[in-house]
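FYI - complex with PMV, inputs then prediction.
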Amino acid sequence: MYEATACANIALVKYWGKRDSDLNLPAAGSLSLTLDVLKTVTEVTPSSGSTDTLVLDGEPQSGRALARVSRFADLVRARTGVQTRLDIRSRNMFPTAAGLASSASAFAALAVGVARALGLSATPAELSALARQGSGSAARSIFGGFVRMHAGRAADGTDAVAEPLADIELPLHAVIAVAAAGPKSIGSTDGMELTRDTSPFYDAWIAQVDVDLAACQDALRSRDLERLATIVEGNCLAMHANAMAARPGIIYFRPATLWAIERVRELRRTGVPVFFTIDAGPHVVAFTPPAHEATVQAALTGHPDVARVLTSPPGAGAQVVER
Ligand code: PMV
């Protein structure tokens, strides 16, 4: 049995738009921080059966979830010629029902676990390209700490891979205000397609991502938290503005989201170095130096629709061990 571990990541400069839907190629780059608390552990066992099996958080799966994982394993089987089926058991060490970025940790863990179980020898960049075919953000979760995803130019996607930004030493923790919410209004894949096809702001958004990527890397390297706040919040709000301008408009914010945004900005006005970002859901993720983590956690606690407030240091890259 091979036990793979990977952590989800939260983007400081967001991925929102594909240049190729089949290969899951992003239209622009992105930049993220891998988070220790959002961990997935996936056991991959070669089986003698005629089909793959999948158990998620103790629940045997069939239908779409199994088909998606099985198609992903097919990518590795096609490359190695090894046709062995796999028994896959995966558990998230954080609340999945909350809709946190579980596809990133799930497909990064699956990529390293399935590659190892089927004997695919692959470089980290190749594993990143493989994980990307499961979920765009999973390409970044192959690596720990700050990670830069490249849009790439190649039609086959071999250069649409992530790379660790190992020289950045800025210590940042995440404080996640997990908002109580019903099922997502629209998933990221459909949301991106609808935005690209109907939002009048889409081209401006894609052009802005390159500007934000350069500025964000620069601000991280010079440890300029004030500048980071402007770039990261601006990029997040531009992504959401772009999605809101799709037709019909996509609104991920809930009342608790706006409340948490306001709390973060209030804290900043009182001198606490903190800034927020928001993925395709209602949760607000605040970033702050470790010394301010408790203050930020307390400030984000107390809204009736904020179910819990998680904190996390940066996480490591995806790993696999034989047991
Ligand atoms: O990896 P996907 O296809 O679920 O897309 C992720 C989209 C965002 O989380 C909203 C942004 C990002 O860069 O992670």
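The longest strand covers residues 30-47. The pocket of PMV is lined by residues 11, 14-16, 30, 101, 103-104, 135-137, 188-189, 279-280 (CB under 6 Å).
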